[in-house]
Every structure is written in structure tokens, then in C-alpha cells.
Design goal:
Beta-galactosidase, Chain A, domain 5, nine-stranded antiparallel sheet
Length: 395
């Protein structure tokens, strides 16, 4: 949820105590071997040194394990570096695209696994007006600003602390984005919590407060391939999205403002179909995005609790993923701009369509589109958003 609606439930205390640092991660729990049993018992997250940035900042990698799922998260960008889940025969495999080394993330990553902020997706002409003041942002995608600008939340070092709640094991990540950073008004205090349950769920809770009116749209940019990272095309995955409308885009991928019906178009995933089925049909919107790179208007709208909106099945491995969210939108991106120049953790090269993203969000360019749900956050209010990815297998 958003800014505006959930704001009435504002609870700022958690954020107030979050003295976040943008530099090295602080000391954490004693390291023991990461692991868990299928009984649901888990061990505390394990921290290890992952690399050092040019400015000397230390980057850690945290490993969490619970109920057969293993997750690796970097303090740099809050990046999901790997996510290992069993296939139908119980064999574990990494289903998230990424790199082995910090340098690769810093040099040239298309947001693999990263936390995206302050504003996920595009803002037209890299500017918006709020309360009569125009704010200019860095343009990093043609004329537009994409994913928070040239140095968004994906390129910041987050403060990471272990967190657990009953049988669930997790991490709390904090980042303070100063007033004016990347052109946005207001100091934004952001807290993101990754939580692994023993039932094969990865839950991400986002929370933020500001000291001046601003815009916020947080998401995670994991590229999934349920057959295994580096195993080739995702076109055979079956995808179902509970959305009767989507937001068509102009030639720079900014929504035109229309909420178009999916019925009778390649965007109709309501009953489930292989991702590749209609990709080559020549629909003008698919040509524009070089594949799917569109925001789906989720039928359920904004909800207080996460509601299921997506099911994905990969027939060979039998792996399944369900996505539930409180957000009203979902950017389905079919990895169109992967171009065979990046080598992933498996040592294999990523080509177009080798991974897909399901970015739960408010709609792109909302700060300039009065007809879209608002992304404005005001002082005294709390931004909250939750997305849950649930993994399983089918026979
Ligand atoms: C966008 C794509 C972009 C990708 C980043 C997605 O969220 O919609 O257009 O290329 O992120 O690589």
C-alpha cells in the first residue's frame, strides 16, 4: 500500500529508532553454519565479507536458510544474490539471476535482485511537480528517470541486521536517503524486511517515512528462472496474472494514461499461458517493449493485506511460484534487454528472455499522472507495502 491510504495507520516509532548508516554494515550475530531442518527450525543469518567498494565501504553477504529454502542477500543494494529452492525431485537450485562478485554488480547490473527506490520504474522527462514545486531528477533512460536515478537505492550500502520472528528468519535493512538525493525532496527513512518462512515463502515488507512531502514507490527487481538461473529461456514458464487491464506505453515506455483491457491481446494472462505464447505476434505494445515490459493493473487494487495475484509454473522442474501483494500494480518484464554480454553465477551467459521480473508497485510515472493511485508520502504518514513470493512444486 501506499503512501496515502495506509498513512492513516501511521506508526513512526520503528523508523525513529532506525539510525541507519549508508556506509559499512554493522557487526551482527555470531556466524554459524547457515542451515535449517525441514521441521522448521532455523539458524541465525550468517554474515560474511563480500567485497569492498572503491570508497572503502565494506559490503557483506548474508545467508539465510529455512525449511529447504536458502537466500543470499548483499548489503549493497539489498540485492537478492541467490535464492535456492527444491525442484519436484527435491533437488535444490538457484532460481534468481545474479553475479558472483561485487565488481560485476557495481560495473553493470540491470538491477539483478536489487531493492529499487526511491521511485521504482519510470518518471517521464525526469521531472515532476509536487505542491507547486517542480523537481528535476537525473535522466538515466533516454529522457526519463528510471528506478530512482543514476544512483538509486540499488547502488547504496544498506545497514543490515538479523531479525527473527518465531519460526521465521530474516533481515532488517535500513537506508536513509537525504533530502535532495537524486533530486527527490525530503529525507526518506526506509526499512525493508526480508523474511523466510519454513513453508517456502519469501516475504518482503517495505516501510518509509519522510520529513517533507515526496514520492515513493519501492520494489524488488529479482529476475527469476524457475528452471534454474543460467538454464536458458523462460518462455516455457506458465504465467497467470489476475489483471483485466494494463497500462500501454509510449515509445519511451511511459504509460499513455489509458487503462487498456487485456481481453483479446497478448496481455491476457488471466487464465494462465506460456510466457512465450504470444510474444512474436507483432502486437504494437510488445514491439515497443521488445517483449513484455508493462505494468498490469491488478484487479484487486490496493489491499491492506497481501492478496495473491500471480502464479508461475515451470513444467520441467515442477517448481511453482505464487506472488501476493498489497500493491495495485505489477511490472511484468520478460528480460528483453539481457543481451548476451553478462555472465551469471552459474558461469553461463544471460540472453534475452533468460529471466523475468515481477515488480510489485504503484504505476509507472504516477507523479505525473493524476489519474493513477497516488505515490505521494507526507510527513507524519507511513508508507507500507508487502509482497510475498511462495515457492512449491507440482507433479
Ligand atoms: C524496466 C525495464 C528495464 C529493466 C532494467 C524494468 O523494471 O521496466 O524497461 O530495462 O527494469 O533493466
Amino acid at each position: 500500500m501506499t503512501t496515502s491510504r495506509r498513512t492513516l495507520l501511521a506508526a513512526t516509532t520503528g523508523i525513529a529508532t532506525a539510525a541507519a548508516t549508508t556506509t559499512a554494515a554493522r557487526a551482527a550475530t555470531p556466524a554459524t553454519a547457515a542451515g535449517s531442518s525441514r521441521t522448521g527450525r532455523h539458524q541465525p543469518p550468517v554474515r560474511e565479507h563480500f567485497g569492498t567498494l572503491d570508497n572503502g565501504d565494506r559490503v557483506d553477504r548474508w545467508t539465510l536458510a529455512n525449511g529447504g529454502t536458502r537466500l543470499r542477500v548483499l548489503s549493497y543494494g539489498g540485492i537478492v544474490q541467490s535464492l535456492e529452492i527444491p525442484d519436484r525431485r527435491g533437488r535444490s537450485g538457484n532460481v534468481s539471476l545474479g553475479f558472483d562478485a561485487l565488481d560485476d554488480y557495481v560495473a553493470d547490473s540491470p538491477y539483478f535482485g536489487a531493492l529499487i527506490g526511491r521511485y521504482g520504474n519510470r518518471i517521464a522527462d525526469a521531472k515532476f511537480t509536487l505542491d507547486g514545486t517542480e523537481y528535476e531528477l537525473p535522466a538515466n533512460d533516454g529522457p526519463n528517470s528510471l528506478h530512482g536515478g543514476t544512483k538509486g537505492f540499488d547502488k547504496r550500502v544498506w545497514d543490515v541486521q538479523p531479525y527473527s520472528s518465531g519460526p521465521d528468519v530474516g533481515l532488517t535493512l535500513r537506508y536513509v536517503s537525504r533530502d535532495g538525493e537524486m533530486g527527490y525532496p525530503g529525507t526518506l527513512r526506509t526499512r525493508v524486511r526480508y523474511l523466510l518462512t519454513p513453508r517456502g515463502e519469501l516475504r518482503i515488507d517495505y516501510k518509509a517515512t519522510t520529513d517533507k512531502a515526496t514520492v515513493v514507490n519501492l520494489t524488488n527487481h529479482t529476475y527469476f528462472n524457475l528452471a534454474g538461473e543460467g538454464s536458458g529461456s523462460i518462455e516455457g514458464h506458465t504465467l497467470r496474472i489476475a489483471a483485466s487491464r494494463y497500462t500501454p506505453v509510449d515509445k519511451t515506455l511511459i504509460p499513455t494514461g489509458e487503462l487498456a483491457r487485456v481481453a483479446g491481446t497478448p496481455f491476457d494472462f488471466r487464465h494462465g499461458k506460456p510466457i512465450g505464447q504470444d510474444l512474436r505476434e507483432g502486437h504494437p505494445q510488445i514491439l515497443r517493449g521488445q517483449g513484455f515490459d508493462h505494468n498490469f493493473v491488478l484487479d484487486k487494487g490496493i489491499t491492506d493485506r497481501p492478496r495473491q495475484v500471480v502464479t508461475v509454473t515451470e513444467p520441467e522442474s515442477g517448481r511453482t511460484m505464487r506472488v501476493a501483494t498489497t500493491e495495485p500494480g505489477l511490472q511484468f518484464y520478460s528480460g528483453n534487454f539481457l543481451d548476451g554480454t553478462l555472465k551469471g553465477t552459474s558461469g553461463r551467459v544471460y540472453r534475452a528472455g533468460d529471466g523475468f521480473c515481477l515488480e510489485t508497485q504503484h504505476f509507472p510515472d504516477s507523479p505525473n499522472q493524476p489519474g493513477f493511485p497516488s505515490t505521494v508520502l507526507r510527513p507524519g504518514k507511513t508508507y507500507r507495502s508487502t509482497t510475498v513470493y511462495s515457492f512449491g512444486t507440482e507433479r
